[in-house]
Amino acid sequence: MNNFPILTFLTFLPILGMVIVLMLPKKQELSIKITTLLITGIQIILSIFLLMGYNFSAGGINDPSSFQFVEKFRWIDITGFAWIGKIKIDYFLGVDGLSTPLVLLTAIVVFIATISSWSIDKSVKGYFAMFLLLDTGMMGTFVALDFFLFYIFWELMLLPMYFLIGIWGGPRREYAAIKFFLYTLFGSIFILLVMIGLYFSSMETLADGTRVFTFNMLEMMNPANYTANGILSPLNPNNLRLIAYIALFAGFAIKIPMFPFHTWLPDAHVEAPTAISVILAGVLLKMGTYGILRVCYPVFPEITYQLAWWIALFGMINIIYGALTAMAQKDFKKLIAYSSVSHMGFVLLGMAGLNTIGISGAILQMFNHGTITAMLFLIVGVIYDRAHIRDLDAFGGLGKQMPIYTGFVTVAFFAAIGLPGLSGFISEALVFLGGFGSDTTRIFAVISTLGILLGATYMLWTMQRVYLGSLNEKWKELKDLTAREYFMLVPLTVIVIFLGVYPSPMLDLMNASVNAMVKFITDAQGVYSAFNSF
Amino acid sequence: MEVGLNHFLVVSTLLFSMGIYAIVTRKNAILVLMGIELILNSANINFIAFSRFGNFGLQGHLIALFVIVLAAAEAAIALAIVLNIYKTLSTVNIDEIDNLKD
Amino acid sequence: MTESVLINLSNAILFLPVLGFVVTLLLGKKIKSIYLFEVFILTIVLLASIVLAFGKLSYFPDDKITAEFEWFRLTDTFAIKLGFLIDNITVLMLFVVALISGLVHYFSIAYMKGDERYNRYFAYLGLFTFSMNGIVLTHSIIMMYMFWELVGLSSYLLIGFWFEKKSAADAGKKAFLVNRIGDTGMLIGILILYLTYHTFSFDQIFASISAGVLPFNSDFWLSVTGVLLFMGAIGKSAQFPLHVWLPDAMEGPTPVSALIHAATMVAAGVYLTIRIFGLLTADAMMFIAIIGMLSAFIPATIALTQNDIKKVLAYSTVSQLGYMVMALGVGAYKFAFFHLVTHAFFKACLFLGSGSVIHAMHHEQDIRNMGGLRKKMPLTYATFLISSLAVSGIPLTSGFLSKDGILASTFAFGSLTGYWIFAVVGLLVAMLTAFYMFRLVVITFHGEPRDHHKFEHAHESPFVMTMPLTVLAILSIFIFYTPNPVSAEQGWFLTKWIDSPEVHTPNSTRFDFMQSNIVEQASLSGHGEIMYSEQYTEAMHSAHYPAMFLSLFFAVLGILTAFTFYQWKKVNVDKLVASVKPLYNFSLNKWFFDEFYQKTFVAGLFGLSKIMYWFDSKIVDGIVNGSATVTHALSIFMGGFDKYVVDGLVNFMAYLSGFFGLLFRRVQTGKVQTYIVLVIFSIIIFFFFL
Question: How far apart are CA C585 and CA C580, in angstroms?
Fold first, then answer.
């Protein structure tokens, strides 16, 4: 079991599935769907195995030896090629408490999105092939520890997403797809630039003692590995680390999406099919915050300290601005999209606290937002499948017509509002405590509490417009949930309630890593300030 | 008055000029060929004259002989060409023979 | 009887209602009579709470029993613990909640009969009971906040129980959101507490305050913290200026109004203030007293003119809650809790009585269509009358005792600090209360029936409805609290059951009359029981009789006025109303609070959100799309440049060479003779220049 390359399987199983799907004849839609379901099901089983073998006390972050399920071997090895010198790139996978919750989240959300994709009827084969490719891209991003590999997975996920929105989307799908694609690509350029800058600034020592430039993230986190005159080296008095940090942050921030880079999100969500919205909100947005925590924070700890105030400021803007904008929406899906903007602000705010409570809250919020928003989009999907419109004002009184559905809606809405007993509360409370605990971010935490008030306002107002009041006669024929919809909503509801009542398992999972991260960033201050005195 | 190098050179220059004149002014291809023969012979006179008055041994004579042979060969080929031109174009007026221009 | 028994009982009291909630909700569709399970559970909870109260009060009267377990832990210093704090106040409050909840369950069996979501109603009641018990039992502020939100949820669900009615759905939303405003303040208060004390437990916080640890090391911030926490109470107890949700909440079923919006949940705010009493400074208490005073006065004036039987009671509730809050503000800790308990019983009785009337009148709530009901519904009338006397503060009732205590405290407070305003307003409100309550009683039960059709069909309610009324009315009699009908001071309730409050704030921040003279011990043990100063005891003593007689006088005056106006009709009410029309309208329209909030905050919020969306779609997205457009335009321009300039240059070169070619082509005549001429001339020129 120990030698079983579980992360490789988790990552590349969908590619295998894609090959199978592509080999199946076009007409066999059912077997295509079942293949996808099986593949994603196996992914869930693998991630459960991952959890069973997980060592809860290992920290990870910057210490290669405490990463788990590590797979590392030389992938690209070019020796002495003209002026470039040696290029050595590792195939380096591993998980710690930062990535495991997100691997789990990806497995769950993709599985549920597969069930949700059952109703796709337009070129099924292409859809599921793209869907599985997307799965690989996301999973790979979360387990890659080599920056080069990370970047490849990051970009790999873009292409299928473009087609999934652009072909299977709504009426303005092409606009939305191009906007999404260009926006994210724009961010990727920054990431690429910083990646190359870091590559030419940091070196790792090989087994034979020679030193070569490295893409290994963990090596980049060690200030001792930097060359004296690298452009992003702390040893270089003219280094561009601040600018590089901002560029890298902006690259990730587009994915979060952070104000003012958020406008691709509502368009993408509104046009994307339900399953893709679920993945987009459930997993893709987390890649931005994950990237910041995985790369920005430990590679540039001293700049992180310097800019924590700004991160919290943008977190606050996201929370308040997203909530206010959500309130003005008439389209159900757009409202949920803007609520995502608001909720991702909590992640930023928690991260900016730079303490265990805040960062734990941020990671937990990533997971919780993934499940809750997935639920919310499924809920919109249920109503859209039946009525074929999403206009909030066109409904009313569905609570009477579809009581069970409305029960799930109530759970999801109140989880989004942050009601105690449901998972959203724990993470938001931790974010507030963490944000308030740091002198830099305290004021933003206080202002952000308005977010929970505004959140309740738009959610309950939506609840009232769509589900309460007298039943609009037009919708007398709407049926309550089907078995398939039950199957999507029940697991998520269980997770939301379970983590609300008993968050310990999830917090324990990330705890060692969060503590390691906080310790690393705090300790790094001394190390980096020593460099600056040169 | 002894006949010196200059006299030979004058004669050959006159011959050369007459040859050039013939080449430039005559429209008949045969006459142009005759002009060329004149130029060749003026050159021969020069060769012989320089060979006689200069200290060059027999080289001038040899080259003059070559030129005569070449002139014969050239005349034979050129007349053949002119004959063929006449056959195809029914003229030996060189102003009209400008098909290569295009 | 050991402590662990008490803790196990508390566990049962807390978690059994969850079981009831889940089972009733999930099986509600399948099993028609599953509600009986919930009723059964509540009966057990009621019995358990009686045993708990009995055990606690008789075996551990002076102990604080705490139990906690670690919910989750992040670092060595940060762990969130959930737990119980069981003292006398806890068990008394639990008993009140369980009793009223149980009675409301019984009452609802008949009242809600025939509703299509009958079982779900009982499930929600179970959820509410669970959340409320959580608030009462908790030992930490964060756990209180959690259950605080959960009662908000159950209140939302129950107010909007008949959500097909737009007004009900609106009211539920309004209640939740207005509460959230207060909760936001409370949350900030909790954040400050955690930052300062690194714990959420009341006991540990108080111990740290006694040890001199203050938020941001300043008295001011301690006051601010107290006020922020109290904001939660402002929301939940419907205090001014957030009182607007409670009257609207009357859209819910009447038993729910009795349980949640009269007796228990709205009292949670007062309960919270009692729990945090130890950290309130004089400034914070002054703030609380002023809020309480305004909340006692404003709704009392509104209640004068309302015609909906439940609205009158709702405003009366806000007013009485204001009384309790004001009592806490002036330091009358015991009387505030005493009034909470007595009020819970008689107000629940009043609401259930009104429910009985509404049930009999087929969901008629306007008192102008009632009248003469006492003949048809003698038992309802009798209980309603007893509770009305209690709320008006007439001797021999429990309300007289508690209200008198509060008024005496405001008198004492006035004489010691010079702020007599609370005493004056207290007396005024006592009179107004007596007036509007008897206006209600007279119009509803006395005189001639106004709607004969409905009157004919009216009937006394069944036993399951009258039984709770009877129980609650009996509990409104003085004997359960003290043997002396004019003073509760010596009764067991105030001497044996409720301890003096513990105050932990630094002496310099307290009122002069609340100085602790055992500071040294306090800082050692973490328990600083306050000693009211001798002057305070004297002032209380000398204020007792004046306050009692004055309040009695005003109450009787109010009652007599009500009878004069509506029973004996000595005064033409319509004429009187016409003569003070603006005032009347002002009161009838609830001081225009709703309109004001609607026009300012709500409209402002929606306006802001529209502006934000405009900003988002036009400016932010405009920049994105604009940059796309600019890029596109630039690409068209570059395309043009490429096509016309770069490519044009290449083509121009070709053209140029073509042009010169044409030019020189003239020379190429193909005529050898011409060439030769040229050659010769060239050579001549060449030689010439040479």
Answer: 9
